Amino acid sequence: MKNFVVPGIGVDVVDVERMQFALERTPRIRQRLFTEAEISYCEKFRFAERHYAGRWAAKEAVTKALGCGLIQWNGVEVMRLPRQAPTVRIFGKIERFAEMVGVREDELHISITHSELSAVAVCVVRKREEPA
């Protein structure tokens, strides 16, 4: 069995109603906060605001797990392949910060859940333990 260490963990909760309000009040906020692929994914659903809220929570959770906070709104992209857990891609300032602290993109593991009221995401940085 391989040994793993968890040098970082992040969690975030987003109110779905607040996300819906932001999307309705400022429609262009989609392009500022989300990638085209994320927008396309969310807009397929009847209650798209729940999926946007989940993705926003995941972006926040990733940056908390890295320890940098949200230094770039669109620096994290949540991807979802059919019948697979969501994964993330990182870009720009967030990618550079991850490199600086020694975290690779494939070491970021997320989980997202949502209800009609809120969305929650968790990110764990999972690294192989270095041999002593």
Residues in β-strands, percent = 25-35%
What's the total number of strands? 5
The gross shape turns out to be: globular
Helix content: 25-40%
Highest-level CATH class: Alpha Beta
What Rg, in angstroms, do the CA atoms define? 15 Å
Kindly describe this structure:
The chain has 132 residues and is α+β, with helices and mostly antiparallel strands. It has 5 helices and 5 strands; from the N terminus they run E-H-H-H-H-E-E-H-E-E. It has helices spanning 16-25, 29-33, 36-43, 48-66, 92-100; strands at residues 4-15, 76-79, 87-90, 108-114, 118-128. The strands form 2 sheets. A 3-stranded antiparallel beta sheet has the order 1-5-4. The chain has a two-stranded antiparallel sheet with strand order 2-3. A hairpin with a 3-residue loop joins strand 4 and strand 5 (118-128). The radius of gyration is 15 Å and the shape is globular. The two termini are 16 Å apart.
In short:
This protein is an alpha+beta fold. The chain has helices spanning 16-25, 29-33, 36-43, 48-66, 92-100, and strands at 4-15, 76-79, 87-90, 108-114, 118-128. A hairpin with a 7-residue loop joins strand 2 and strand 3.
Keywords:
5 helices, 132 residues, 5 strands, globular, two-stranded antiparallel sheet, three-stranded antiparallel beta sheet, alpha+beta, Ribosomal Protein L22, Chain A
Task: Give the topology.
Elements: E1 4-15, H1 16-25, H2 29-33, H3 36-43, H4 48-66, E2 76-79, E3 87-90, H5 92-100, E4 108-114, E5 118-128
Antiparallel strand pairs: 1-5, 2-3, 4-5
Helix pairs in contact: 1-4, 3-4
